Structures are given as C-alpha cells and as structure tokens.
Amino acid sequence: MLNGQPIYTALKDRLRVAQLVGNGHLDEIQVPVLEIPGASAFQVHSLDWPSESLLISIQRGERRVIPHGNTIIRPGDILILLVPNGQVGHYKALITTRLGRLYEKIARDTTSNDT
Question: Is the pLDDT of residue 85 over 50?
Fold first, then answer.
C-alpha cells in the first residue's frame, strides 16, 4: 500500500503524471504563501484546491516537503503545483484567491473564538 492505494496503482498514477509533464501537457507553477499580518499556518486539506491541479511539493527555505493532507503550510512557503499546459496565469490567480479566502476564514474563526 502507498498512501492508502495499492502500490502498483499509485506508481502507475505517478508515472502517468511524469509522462504528462514530459510531453508538455502539464506546467509546473510556483505560488508563494504570503506573509500577511494575522495569517497563520494551515493544513493542506484546508484549502479548496482547483480540480486539474496537483500540489507536488512545498518549498520551505532550502527544503522541499512532499505534501500530504495533514502537512502544514506556513506563510513564506512556496507551493509547487502541476496544472494544465497553457493555463499558468489562470491557476496562479485561482490559488492565490483561494488562499486569501482561507486566510479570511481563519481570521474570522480566530476572532469568534476570542469572544
């Protein structure tokens, strides 16, 4: 088993992604997680990820982290994703917008818990 999947299925899926990248069907993008006052860390599964995108790693300083659902994303991290070819701008804007919405939700939840 690999991440809850039979190992051959998981490896076949990874090979398919590698072939798509190699054939130019996918682009890699980097989206910085901005350091906004009041912004806090959150888990990967908390973000509403766009369909047709795949978070492949998180750049944290000099380290690259392989993400899982419970991996913490922190301000200052750089998210590295695969997206459909030719749609880099669209997906960067979409993910940045969703990060902003998540920060707003976290701020509201923190404020309501303080009262």
Answer: yes
Enter the pTM of the model. Answer: 0.74
Give the Cα separation of 21 and 56 in Å (integer): 12
Residue 87 CB burial class (10 angstroms; 0-12, 13-18, ≥19): middle
More confident residue, 57 or 1: 57
106, with CB counted inside 10 A (0-12, 13-18, 19+), is middle
Residue 90 in contact with residue 115, Cβ under 8 Å?
no
How deeply is 92 buried, as exposed, middle or buried, from its count of CB atoms within 10 A (0-12, 13-18, 19+)? middle
Measured distance CA(95)–CA(2) in Å, rounded: 27
Q: How many CB atoms lie within 10 A of CB 6?
A: 10
Residue given tokens 């888990």 in the structure block: 43
